[in-house]
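ok trying again, last paste got cut off:
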Amino acid sequence: MVRLKTISPLSREELKNLHFSWNENQAQSDYDMEHLVQINENELENYYNAANEIYDMYVEAAEYVIENDLFFDLGIPFNLIDAIKKSWDNDVHWHIYGRFNFSGGIDGKPIKLLGFEADAANLLYETAVIQTNLLNKNNIALEKHFNNSYEAITNNFKRLITLFDELDTFDQRYDGWKILFSSFADNEEDEVSTKFLQQMAFEAGFETSFEFLEKTQFDENGIYDSNSNPYEYWFKFYPWEEIAHNEPELATTLTNIMNDQKAIIINPAYTLLFQSKGMMKILYDLFEDSPYLLETSFEPLENMQQIEKPVFGKNDSNAKLYDFNARVIDEIDGEYSNYKNIYQEYVDLPKDSEGFQYETSVLFAYEACGLGFQKKETRLSQTRRFVGHIID
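nice, full thing came through this time. structure:
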């Protein structure tokens, strides 16, 4: 059973001071401020090792997909294939951060991979900032939780310049290259997360600026803010698959910008391979003996309780839960029905004494760097509450 520690929550005023205002009117629905999930050192180490090992598996699987031209199998839009190949072949296209979703790891249940939000991953601000302030308010030492995501992501921005060399070479190599950060104007959560990433890049040593996506300018010669200032790097809180489907002309322009080396786009286009849930079928084919993988197929599994879900989508949208007789026993509608589907072996999530289920989130930036949980009433649910943790 999931063990919880009861704590004093942050007030709405404290949340507002932390720029958590998008949650101001529904703080208790999006975030469980009154509890922390209790884990031990061994469980933490297992999460850390799982994320690091699985990331290496993703890298190997991505190489396999590219070499064998399996983009269609993963539901990759054809207009981004060239961008994926270009970014994969050059180390300057550096993956800054992402978030693994796991089942298990607590309550004696084995860790199993549920997905990888490798591009525009949410829950960064909650993991890095809100958890820390909750512990401070309750006089709990920060060493009692796993969260070095700020430092890890800051260092990963430095690796845009140093690559695999020592980070202390950044200052001598950096030559004033600028990063433009962009998110949509009508999404305060994405804006706060994007500006938080901008703060990390600035601390790493970059010149930075912010521009809403609606005002960002593009042509074959580069990427510009609304004042026509050019930038060598562009971070967009806008998933690659949505760019491909919603703005195909932009996808083509960005590919040309990359091919002509006019700008580098963060996160790189190859993270779309990681983002596709179809990659979990490739992983299962390549690493069937891995303890972290659930059986996954592009066709219904036989004699098995399973979940059908689109290769791209959020919060269980368009997912279906089947029983052992292939009957649908739960499903959620959504806007991702046009994507290809996968079928993944069903696994229970750990539960607390009231029956709430917990999905684990592990931030990754060069290595595992932060931990949090998502609390759900049912296995398929679009309503979930972020819960912090404490190491006992």
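cool. Residues 24-28 have pLDDT under 50 and may be disordered. Residues 295-346 form one domain.
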